[in-house]
Amino acid sequence: MPATSDHSARTAGYDNALFKSFKEHCHGTRVDTKTTVLYMLREEYPEYHVTETTKGLVSLLEFAEAGKAVAIHDSNRESFNATRVWRSVGERVEKKLHPGVLRDEFRFSRFQYIWEGKEFVVYYVEWKDMLDNPQRMFYVLHPRNDANIVDGHCTDTDELLLAVGKWTSLLHEEIWVFDNTHWEKSKELYKSIKGSSWDDVILDPEMKKNIIEDVQRFFDNQGLYSQFAVPWKRGIIFHGVPGNGKTVSIKALMSSLYDRVDHIPSLYVKTFRDRCNGEEYSIRQIFERARLSAPCLLIFEDLDSLVGDDVRSYFLNEVDGLESNEGILMIGSTNHLDRLDPAISKRPSRFDRKYHFKLPGEEQRGDYAEYWRKKLLKNDTIDFPEELCPIIAKLTDGFSFAYLKELFVMALLSLVRGHKGDDYEMIEAENEPETANEEKAACEANPSCKEEEEQTDTCQCAKTCNTCKKPLPQETAPEKLTMPTVDIPEHLVDNTLLKVIRQQIRILHAEMDNTKEEQLPGGNIMASGKGNLFAAQMQVLRMRRVQCC
To answer: Which residues belong to any copy of the AAA+ ATPase domain (predicted)?
Structure first.
């Protein structure tokens, strides 16, 4: 690291007085901190040209950390404000072994900044005015001379900002994430999606193929859109019961687009919430960044929760592109398509393609079991023959992919803890369906039973009947979920994994049956309690059974 230059030493004397002025300002009545800081710097550094720029667009410190420049922090404790923060490093086991690192999260700090042989003084200042969003600004100072000031701007500073701005606009193993009113690059999200692959996504093959082609062809065919005079923009909606592949498909898309030769960036929106400037400001920030990043994938997860009635019109104006949205492919996901305003879900040229993620059928459940079998091929302690996959598929009727994952994780954890199939008392549970069937058969064979069924002592007119004196019918309890009867080949009857899986299916069935469901306006199901994740899919399953009967 180079020693502090004479140029840097000359500026050091200004610093204590400047920081003192800034602290006095922060403790007093103020209207515009941004302008105040700019004038404070100009007053304290009359021999320097001062340029103000936004951290979000010009990340000077990250540029230096990447080795593109040198930033030397003025460590005089009287001249900066920062929070000392501990962060872990490494992966998994390494995190436990490594003591971690300490970093400074600055609010006011000064740096000697060297880029391509040119020296600058850079201040980073962060504050929050009342009823305003946090501000994060850089102030770049460079000595004035007759040659480098053109139209009031410093040419040396502008060259630096152009280089840093271009670098900042690109992703470096990161994903853009919008949260807390501003965009930030997330290396953590990048790491989580980088290992994602379409090989890990179990869907109907035709639907999976269509999704991949739909997205890849959009980014491949800019010229075709132009040839037919069609705006190069699209919107897609993923909808369906929770836990059936929407999120994992989005992650696979993000990973596949990043792996292209022409990397396609992904922008992920967490929330529009902005208590200071309103959600309209956030929506504006989101689409401004998307236009700068285009071509790009813009993701709105839980779209129905993001776009409320109060901001719908503003959101649609941005979607329709009062400014150009060329090269932007939007994907919105929702568990409740019916809650989306028709202006979003049914209007052509907005979100004009929809993919329904349904509960997996028997074939997909078998594919998912096969996916886990292949993951466990190197594990010699688990006997998982290929013949088990179609059996598990039949036993898990009505399970979502999330529920199937829970089933395998619970079963494997049970084996890890040392449980064996013989540890479970399964005989009584297995005989319950047979007992119920025997009682039903005996009842059907008894004529008096049949006559009682045909008689009714309750009103059959309507639920709001006022014409007869019979009591209104009482709602019956939902049907208890039972494991389907499946023929098990004799050589698999004693398979430990199968025994454990069957027991875990019973446990999960009991969890579903104990789920409390509340009917909301519009016919939607909201679940509370332990079975929250699976209530909606169980409602679908029960409706399916009613239709079949």
So the answer is: 232-361
pTM of the model: 0.71
- Element containing residue 66 per DSSP (H, E): none
Return the bridge partners of 154, or none: 149
C-alpha closest to that of 48 among 113, 149, 142: 142
354 in Cβ contact with 237 (< 8 Å) = yes
In order along its 549 residues, the chain shows pLDDT tens digits of 454 556 555 565 566 778 778 877 777 666 788 888 999 999 999 999 999 999 988 999 999 999 999 999 987 767 788 889 988 776 655 566 778 889 888 899 999 999 999 999 999 999 887 777 789 999 999 999 888 899 999 999 999 999 999 999 888 888 999 987 888 889 889 988 988 899 989 999 999 999 999 999 999 999 999 898 888 999 999 999 888 999 999 999 999 999 999 989 999 999 888 766 788 989 999 999 999 899 999 999 899 989 888 889 999 999 987 668 999 999 999 999 988 888 888 887 789 899 999 999 999 999 999 999 999 998 888 899 999 999 999 999 989 999 999 999 999 998 888 765 555 544 334 444 444 455 555 555 555 555 444 455 555 555 555 556 556 555 555 667 778 888 899 999 889 999 999 999 988 888 766 654 433 333 333 333 334 444 444 444 444 443 443
Instruction: Assess if residue 105 is contained within a domain.
Output: yes
Is 176 domain-assigned? no
Extract the runs of DSSP E, i.e. beta strands, from 6-117: 48-54, 70-73, 81-87, 101-115
Secondary structure letter of residue 151 according to DSSP: T
Q: Do 397 and 504 have their domain in common?
A: yes
* Cis before 143 (ω within 30): no
CA-CA distance, 231 to 294, in Å (whole number)? 13
Long-range contacts of 366-371 (CB under 8 A, 24+ apart): 366/390, 366/392, 366/393, 367/202, 368/202, 368/401, 368/404, 369/393, 369/404, 371/200, 371/202
> Residue 410 belongs to what domain range?
361-423+480-549
Q: How many domains does the chain have?
A: 3
221, 247, 244: which is closest to 234 by C-alpha?
221
